[in-house]
Amino acid sequence: MTPSSRAVPGRSTMQDVAALAGVSLKSVSRVVNEEPGVSPALAERVRRAVAELGYRHNLAASNLRRGRHTGAIGMLVQDLSNGFCAEALRAVEDRARERGVVVMAASSDEDGPREREVVAGLVARRVDGLLLMPTSRDLGWLTPEIEAGLPVVSVDRRPAVPEVDAVVVDNQGASAEAVGHLVAHGHRRIAFLGDIAGIITAAERLDGYRAGLRANGVVPDPALELTGLRSREAARDGVLRLLDLPRPPTALFAARNVISEGAVMALQQRGLTHEVALVGFDDLAVAEMLDPAITVVSQDTHAIGTRAIDLLLRRLDGDTSPPRTEVVPTRLVRRGSGEIPGPHQVRQDTRPA
Hints:
Elements: H1 14-21, H2 25-32, H3 40-53, H4 59-66, E1 72-77, H5 83-98, E2 102-107, H6 112-124, E3 129-132, H7 143-147, E4 152-155, E5 165-168, H8 171-184, E6 190-193, H9 200-215, E7 225-226, H10 232-243, E8 251-254, H11 257-270, E9 277-281, E10 295-299, H12 301-316, E11 325-327, E12 330-333
Parallel strand pairs: 1-2, 1-3, 3-4, 4-5, 5-11, 6-7, 6-8, 8-9, 9-10
Antiparallel strand pairs: 10-12
Helix pairs in contact: 1-2, 1-3, 2-3, 5-12, 8-9, 10-11
């Protein structure tokens, strides 16, 4: 094989490796599968060809063909330091421990290339299955592994590919309910504080926010929509800008727990915690300790993690039923911040009839 005819790195086949190394396909298979029966010199030639071509061996396929189970699964979350991700991982670990399964966990940081790199590393370590909080709906890059038999369950985010099981919540419906709650308490100037719009959950919650406004006769105002808030500091600064508008919001819908923290910081800084209403998506560890306590859309994180690994374990046990999506219910927890009255609060007549 001449250099010009070599396969593109990362897309090379075992046949390409055999041709470049000048050995048989069976010899390449023995080397990449770490089987005996190959001389050290021949094995070195194969490894050099693998490195030069950037060949990536599909270990999922090898494990499937050979009936091998390693007793390990991979879990890739958005950020292990985030409370939601940590709680979901703990639920997965608890169930995995009951089955004698080891969980290898890592963070994607919402970075597509990092996500693919980490998944490749997990597959290379021969995990039996994968739990994934995908950075985007497009999981086409995982198709070769899925087709080779690697079970994959999408956690928290609904994937576009039909071959993958998923465990999610109704982000749109829950967000619309939260906004409707604020409208019912007299608010019309309700701001949306969200993450990067390209993130599945962030986009769904923004859609739900808009739908909740329209359902209650309120026209969405683009000036009150802030997205791309990746940290509590960014959320704090964004809320401060909103509060400086000629017509500032009287209520805030924070579509992520870290964003809720930043919103609280801004309201505390301006002394408005009892004047501007706040509803957050995802609970906070200190939500009940604040004054006022924070009203939230609460997700059953333990159920999300448990259902996800149960789906994966069933696949590993041989379940071949069609892929399915399970929706875990959310709950609006009223604690005070979301019940602060707005300028359009309807006053109830409490006088006796």
